[in-house]
Amino acid sequence: MRTLPITDREEINDILKACKTCWVAMSDENIPYVLPMNFALDGDSIILHSAQHGRMWETLKKNQQVCINWTLGEEIAWQDVRVGCSYQVKSKSVIVEGRAEFIDDFDEKTRCLEKIMAQYSDREFKFSKPSVENVGILKVKIEKLSAKVFGAKAVTPWKS
């Protein structure tokens, strides 16, 4: 079984759309911090939401650089059931690096909340003025994107 890169952006977007949680990593003075978060894909950006206070918010005020991971699939596979090193989790993974931008504009925050909810439901939602004003919205422009499939079967070349 092999680990292979995924380069097709449509396939990468399909992985993101199939995931319900992303893991956002950040650092404050070399102390790593990782949080599971809900998200939405918005073109070449990732939208995140949270409270406007707390450890994540304070960390991002000091250092906006983030790394975000999505992993889809957890099937165990092996080449030889008796060889531990041949075991692997069959999955697909996407990693994005970028800089978190704090969104303060009311209309943009509303649009971002609509995008996030569309990731999880086909319903239309309304947001009260206080809920929009009190939520923290972050937008991460994708600066670096990579994706891999783990546990792919090696393709045997055709022999004549």
Descriptive account of the structure:
The protein is of the alpha+beta class. The protein has one domain (2-152): Roll (Pnp Oxidase, Chain A). Helices cover 24% and strands 49% of the residues. The chain has four helices and eight strands, in the order βαββββαββααβ. The protein has helices at 9-18, 55-62, 106-120, 129-134, and strands spanning 2-5, 22-28, 31-37, 39-42, 45-51, 65-78, 87-103, 135-152. Strands 1, 2, 3, 4, 5, 6, 7 and 8 form an eight-stranded antiparallel β-sheet that branches.
Concise structural overview:
Helices cover 24% and strands 49% of the residues.
Q: Please estimate the helix content.
A: 10-25%
Question: Could you give the order of the helices and strands?
Answer: EHEEEEHEEHHE
CATH names the topology as Pnp Oxidase, Chain A
- Report the sheet with the most strands, covering strand number, pairing sense and barrel closure: 8 strands, antiparallel
CATH superfamily: Electron Transport, Fmn-binding Protein, Chain A
In terms of structural class, how would the helical and strand content be classed? alpha+beta
Could you say how many structural domains there are in total?
1
Shape type: globular
User: How confident overall, as mean pLDDT?
Assistant: 88
Model regions low in confidence, pLDDT < 50 over at least 5 residues: 154-160
Number of strands: 8
Strand content: over 45%
Distance between the termini: 24 Å
Oligomeric form: single chain
Specify Rg, calculated over alpha carbons. 19 Å
